[in-house]
Amino acid sequence: MNTSPSRLVEYGAVIDSNVMVRPPDVTELELEPGHPGEHDVEYVERRKALFALTRRHRLEGLGPPLVAYTPEETRIWRAVSPQLDALHRKYACSMYLAAKDELAITQTEIPQLRTLSARLERETNMHLVPAEGALPYRTFYEYIANRGFPVTQFIRHGSHPEFTPEPDMIHDCLGHVPPLMNPDYAELLTLIGKAAATTPHGDQVLALKRFSWFSIEFGLIEERSETKVFGAGILSSTGEIPHSLFSKDATRRPFVTDTVIATDYDPSQMQKDFFIAPSFTFLRRELEALVRRFGIPVL
Length: 299
Ligand SMILES: [Fe+2]
Fold this sequence. Notes:
It is a single chain. By secondary structure, the chain is an alpha/beta fold. The chain has a single domain, classed as Phenylalanine Hydroxylase (Orthogonal Bundle). 47% of the residues lie in helices and 11% in strands. The protein has helices at 41-59, 71-91, 94-102, 113-124, 137-145, 169-176, 183-198, 202-217, 232-235, 240-246, 257-260, 280-294; strands at 14-16, 19-21, 127-131, 148-152, 220-223, 226-229, 251-254, 273-277. Strands 6-5-8-7 form a four-stranded mixed sheet. A two-stranded antiparallel ribbon has the order 1-2. A two-stranded parallel ribbon has the order 3-4. A hairpin with a 2-residue loop joins strand 1 and strand 2 (19-21). Helix 7 (183-198) runs parallel beside helix 12 (280-294). The protein is globular and about 50 Å long. Mean pLDDT is 91; it is low at 1-22. The protein binds fe (ii) ion. Fe (ii) ion is lined by residues 10-11, 167, 171, 175-176, 217, 232-233.
């Protein structure tokens, strides 16, 4: 089994070697072979219960359910979040750190998505959609286009707290949620959703996915002459944070849109290409220009 912590991948659709794969609408919990929890009966039952609960809330538009987390789930949160927080304080961008504090995401209690969603709604008119697992890409983008970010409500298996083969609450709450407090970031994300959900052209969806991958998931940003982290896939991995900033096995280049949308990526490995954006406003403008160039009628 690949236990690289970098397999904290994007949420939603999957791109495999430039071929677009549309995950079907999965109606029951499926753990991939080799999943750390696949033989743990209690874990599988818990995941099935959360799958059914969050799927129903999503399909019925009820918003995130309040979840009573178990002592084991809280233990895992308390094992992972302080390690990440120590790295965040040193290497995350200032916008992320301020948002994490404003959202009162602590290292001791698993946050309730319902509370986070209400706060986001007041701040940037974004909200959280409970997601039972990976969604078909168009469904995922349609939620984003409507200012809803699909977020999981389950926690990884406790045998490997630093690793999950699928995005879980630690990835989503400590990676994706805090930046949604920033207006430019919120508009950037919403526009990715609108454009990807609207265009019928696969090559344009692929370009938008790469733009998203190298910003929303694995983006770096320039801040007072320093390179800082804001991508969710980096922020939720104790391995990717130092790797993205310091590894000799990775390149760090300025964010040039034409280069970014021509660069492939492999979600199953530690990333080897990183792009540094000068600001969130820059990213938003670059995306608007790309969407205009593609002729997607969403602006
Ligand atoms: Fe993600």
